[in-house]
Amino acid sequence: MLADTISAEFLTKTIEHYLADEPQAVAVEDGEVLFNFGTAKYSISGEGKCVLHIWSEERNTVRRVLDAQINDRTLRLQVLRFGQAQPKLMEICADRDRRAGAAKRIARKSYQSALERVLRRECPGFRIEHFSSSPDLEHSFSPVYTRGVVRAGQSAFAVLGVNSEETQPSVDAALTFGMLWMDHQRRQLAGRAHVEGLKLFVPPGRSEIVRQRAANLNADAAKWQLYELDERSEICEPVDSADSGNIITRLTRAVDVPAARQRFATAVARIRALAPATEITVQSASEIVFRLYGLEFARACLTPVSGSFRNSESILFGIGPAEYILDETSEALFAELVNRITEQRHPAGSHTNLFFRLAPERWLESLIIRNVQTIDERLDGRFVYSQVPAFAGCDRAMLDVLTCTRDGRLAVLELKADEDIHLPLQGLDYWARVRWHQQHGEFTRNGYFAGREISSAPPLLYLVAPALRVHPTTDILLRYLSPRIEWKLVQVDERWREGVEVVNRKHPARSGGGSFL
Fold it and tell me: Which SS3 state, helix, strand or coil, does residue 349 take?
């Protein structure tokens, strides 16, 4: 397609739809990652032209887009810098790890050799078996990880390692795959050897999330051994996986919701005039968010006026990383966006439409928050908080709800609308953070659960997902959680958009050795 035949509208819609579907993508130019859309924002302007403006705290870039093509989850843009005649290539990639396949294979093969040498040195008397990093989709084993077994007579350990070239989310996920590999080997070697536990190897200085998760596993079910391995020097240091240490988490003070809504009454009235069903979430004393069935499309905030002590109220709108200021020049654009969302963002909308598909977890969350007793009649609907406490230092693809029972016991809900292998351990993350703040008395001190006496008992953990979207490995992973964690797997009907209905509940049988009821 020739550049002069491509309309600005086509280019704009292509970019908008791609970034709405891939909000964590990165922008790459001249081999350098310029922006991560997890934190960066963008807008598109230009009369008859597609002018792309991307900005973050580090930099500010403006490019005219001449062409756009999507291939293998990568958006390739032919862009023109102002003042230059020759176009350049900007790639917006969903995969932040852009190394070529050959480079990945070389790094993983080199790591496997280093890990084998370390095991021979550190595990005298054990022989190494079954070492591989080949993918095994049937058993959910990824090529990211080197896995194997060390064995001495009737005693064996499962081994799993991840090299320093892999992304931090891959390192954080290592325990999930290590647990599955150990369980698989226990079944494979049954009658021939006893797999005592897991030896897990991660890069130096990157074990924090794994260590915190391992501290909340069942020590009677397996020996959990964590190591930091530098594959270049082959120095291997043990990490105390029984010690959760200082958890990276933060808890802001509870917001006076009625006061904040009154402060933004004008903005609320303006938005609801266009979309009466808008959900309003108070983020802080100076910011509120507008959503429709969980999909954020606008926010109102107070910002300081330069050279004065006054604050100015602004309304920003857009989907995902897109961000526009609502003013006279953008009023029509905003009205068009709201109209497009309201036409499809409802239970009877088209399942193929972008606005219907986006943010399914937020949609599920919005329904559960309205009536949290649907999940368990013991829960108290007067106290429901979303994403409290906040996470720091790790990627989260799931949403969390904090509430309590009618007798004051904390309850955490981890929500997932689609199949996800990490549901149990990401739920464990949230449980551990809530427990940490509870033990330090921070919920009461920061104004949460006002008027309610909170029990000192550990929080309840609810893992919520549609019945047919629960990953097949979930039951295996749940068997290895610490018995002090009282969890429930709550499966809801697939038609949850029409109304959340629980179709099945599972919880551990405390006297049954990890079975379910």
Answer: coil
